[in-house]
Amino acid sequence: MDEDSRDERYELVIVSNRLPVDRVAGDDGEASWRPSPGGLVAALEPVMRQEDGVWIGWAGVADEVIEPFEADGISLIPVPLSEQEIEEYYEGFSNDTLWPLYHDVIAPPSYHREWWDAYLRVNRRFADAAARASAPGAVVWVHDYQLQLVPALLREARPDLVIGFFNHIPFPPYGIYSQLPWRRQIIDGLLGADVIGFQRVADAGNFSRAVRRLKGFETRGPIIEVPIESDDPASGSHRHVTSNKHGGLVRTVLARQFPISIDTQKYQDLASRPEIQERARQIREDLGNPKTIMLGVDRLDYTKGIGHRLKAFGELLAEDKISVDDVTLVQVASPSRERVETYRLLRDEIELTVGRINGDYSSISHTAIAYLHHGYPREEMVALYLAADVMLVTALRDGMNLVAKEYVASRVDEDGVLVLSEFAGASDELRQALLINPHDIEGLKEAMLAAIAMPRRERARRMRALRKRVITNDVARWSASFLDALTRSAHGDHPLQNPPTNRG
Ligand code: G6P
């Protein structure tokens, strides 16, 4: 990378905590880059390939300054984090304060002032990098809870930019959100954006309520009126400066749902490949040809309800409602945030439970639970989806849950049953799944039995309806509709009418 290109300015700037690649040391000692885990990367990769833009994010390593580079045709600008910042900003404030708080306090959030200081410092660094990389009037799209202060910091430095923010995880009800000692600063940070996107109608509603309660600002449907001072030097460049009903000057911010999706075509293509279908058959054979394969695929996270799923499965075995000869549960739990204590404890708990159930019920020829603590390439995931008669998504709280959509997209044979938690954002759209409350273990067990026994015709009917939804609303449509709202906002037009609905 030469000196000139380092100062290059881009028209579309994506900012997320992680770059879409991780650096890994090869066998020969040479470093290389491979796609990093997480739904966000899967969702945005196709957008970045189409647009001539740049992606700003952390490269996943400590204490290293890496020059901007290109990977797979995408321009990347790494933001460095020190070992201490990884502990305080990423593992601490992002994943031990905000993550549990925003997921209904399933685990208790920790509040530490030093973590907040690091969060502020790192958010400033991301905002500075975005300000430097953006062409005049550029569109900047900031992602997720790790970077909620970036929109306001960026607006302050570059009032000419069009700024969008998308929250991939839930936004909690006010009664929970109000615990946060820095609840006003986060709201101020987000309100720096022109458009703030959420997964569900309920998330956008929770956010607007927090704005009204904490700031006293008025909201009209999805529009939030942010008062500005007339002598504010930036007021001239604010695109949506208008007067409110009291005659005061306000900036308008659009906050509404934009339910994220997947690259549906990619999953359909993979699922149509003969070698992947053959691999699916092989998986069934390797499992001892059970009548029913149930599948769970999750990051090993306490929000995913893996323990609830195992409890229900274990009870069905204990009550002789199912037998290991007929039913196998495959649980893929990909390693995640392993240095955060709550995640370490969760792993121990899950592995203890799996060990107990297998010890009690497995036979020499049939294992009750095939537990896999790995991430897998997409090809293998699609083969697993094709092999799985029943997909179990039992999240206690989840922004969207793309696994549910990946399963549906992969079932080109219009077979398979999706058991889906109503606490996952996907349940707003995927209404023909068997919707469950994962806290209701009896209800979950009944849904699992119903899924096993469901006749082929009903499976096909439900799967066809689910597939229609995921085929129509793919990730390209999601990003296009968000970017469209942002572009319109650049022209001073906040579309009040016809927001995309996530009701199916
Ligand atoms: C969720 C978050 C993403 C995050 C991903 C993986 O999907 O919404 O922002 O990147 O989990 O988590 P990690 O901590 O490994 O980035």
From TrEMBL:
Similarity comment text for this entry: Belongs to the glycosyltransferase 20 family.
Q: What is the lineage of its organism?
A: Bacteria, Bacillati, Actinomycetota, Actinomycetes, Micrococcales
Q: Where is the signal peptide?
A: none
Q: Subunit structure, briefly?
A: Homotetramer.
Name of the gene this protein is made from: otsA
Task: Record the organism.
Answer: Leifsonia tongyongensis
In short, the EC number is 2.4.1.15
The role this protein plays is: Probably involved in the osmoprotection via the biosynthesis of trehalose. Catalyzes the transfer of glucose from UDP-alpha-D-glucose (UDP-Glc) to D-glucose 6-phosphate (Glc-6-P) to form trehalose-6-phosphate. Acts with retention of the anomeric configuration of the UDP-sugar donor.
The pathway noted for it is: Glycan biosynthesis; trehalose biosynthesis
Give the record's GO biological process terms.
Answer: trehalose biosynthetic process
Q: Known Gene3D superfamilies for this protein?
A: Glycogen Phosphorylase B (3.40.50.2000)
List the CDD domains hit by this protein, alphabetically. Answer: GT20_TPS
Provide the protein name: Trehalose-6-phosphate synthase
